[in-house]
């Protein structure tokens, strides 16, 4: 019984130390925060907010010519592997982004659709 306990203790220690590499943790920490699309029209804004718990929000804001503002926020889940970010909405649809050498988040299907990180603090969105 004691050897079985020791075996499980060692197994837990090994799995805890090898489950996430330091690179994976650093990548996640670099992604977490608020990203803003930089090529939108003046009266329109589009943000991606990545939380540390692998959840996030897509925020779209439009200001009319009369000054009225309409916005929407859609929740999503995200995964990051090898500088490729996968966003899953409603457990069905997926979008993939990559982090380019300039540190921008770029939609894989549209190279001209890039986001710049504007803040590490996402607390006002959660």
From TrEMBL:
This is Lipocalin-like domain-containing protein.
């Amino acid at each position: 019984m004691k050897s079985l306990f020791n075996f499980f203790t060692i197994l837990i220690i090994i799995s805890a130390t090898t489950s996430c590499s330091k690179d994976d943790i650093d990548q996640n920490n670099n992604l977490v925060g608020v990203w803003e699309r930089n090529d939108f029209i003046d009266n329109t804004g589009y943000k991606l907010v990545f939380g540390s718990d692998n959840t996030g929000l897509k925020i779209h804001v439009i200001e009319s010519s009369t000054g009225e503002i309409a916005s929407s926020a859609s929740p999503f889940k995200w995964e990051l592997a090898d500088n490729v970010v996968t966003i899953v909405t409603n457990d069905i649809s997926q979008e993939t982004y990559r982090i380019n050498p300039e540190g921008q988040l770029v939609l894989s299907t549209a190279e001209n659709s890039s986001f710049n990180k504007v803040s590490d603090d996402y607390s006002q969105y959660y």
